[in-house]
Task: structure prediction
Amino acid sequence: MGLYQLFENTYKIISIVGMAKNAGKTVTLNALIESLDQNGASVGLTSIGRDGERQDIVTKTDKPMIYVKKGTLIATAELLFGLSEVKMAVVEVTDHQTAMGRVIIGRTLADGYVQIGGPSSNSAVNAVAERMLGHGADYVLVDGALDRASSASPLITEACVLATGAVLSRDMTKAISKTVHKASLFNLPEASEASVLEYWGLAEESRQVISIDSENQARALGTSKTALSAGRNIGEWVDEQTKILLFPGALTTKTLMEIVHGTQHYKSIQFVVADATKLFIEHKDWQYFKRIGVDIRVRYGIKLLAITVNPYAPQGYFYDGALFKQSLNERLPEIPIVDVMEGDGL
Result:
């Protein structure tokens, strides 16, 4: 089964997120564009950050370019609209501003290469994607910038494809472990308790951590939206009656470690974040928290459609592609694994 068949008639806005630079994200994006075109679908394309330039702005190395078909809808900043190699007709000039000017939605007049730099805020990306659907796109692909896994958030896109590769480590086992960790975060269970649904809006509105006790009573713990340095206070505030903690912002290793060290009741508490993109916990720390019984859930689940693999690293080393794919299949049997460099499944 190809990637197109995974979201055909089900998901309309899909993000492509890279585990790291040179993990194969742009190759995956190009393959998806080609697959959608072959299946007669009209494509819309935007990005969080900038992509599509011939040379990486930071490393000065050559990088894959984004190739689109005639009739593709592109949402990009004014500056990049003029820099794209393919000509585009203006469809709409939006009110969304970027450092490179307003976001313009255009339609390509021929096949060719484009540069994209969409809105910087999550809500604006979603709004622009919806506009492209309104202008006739059957599907919108959101190119997630490096270190901006937030583009996978279900509040922005309906589903995502994760790109991973040999660039993560010279040791294939380590690269696999890191990928499995990210996939496990994306597949965290949703919190289904009625009290979570009842009080989540309060947590988002107040931008504070909300504690819910066994009597379904809620209180704000007076912490900041991100709770980056609030773990110690939270650990002191919770007691044997505390059953759920709602985190409207980020939950980090530091915060969680302070809570665990600050109260013996952490094992009976359910920790709830908006979605997996709000978790900043490395693999080894995640293993530790799971081992001691920490229960982390999400308010909104992320639909991980597939993982694409790139067995080649720009440093010159590479993996056995078949073994890389097989090993990930064995660790993640429920998720389709696609080798983008071989073109399988696309």
Summary: DSSP finds ten helices and 20 strands in the chain. Confidence is low (pLDDT under 50) at residues 57-61. The longest strand covers residues 88-98. The chain has two domains: 3-187+302-339, 194-298.
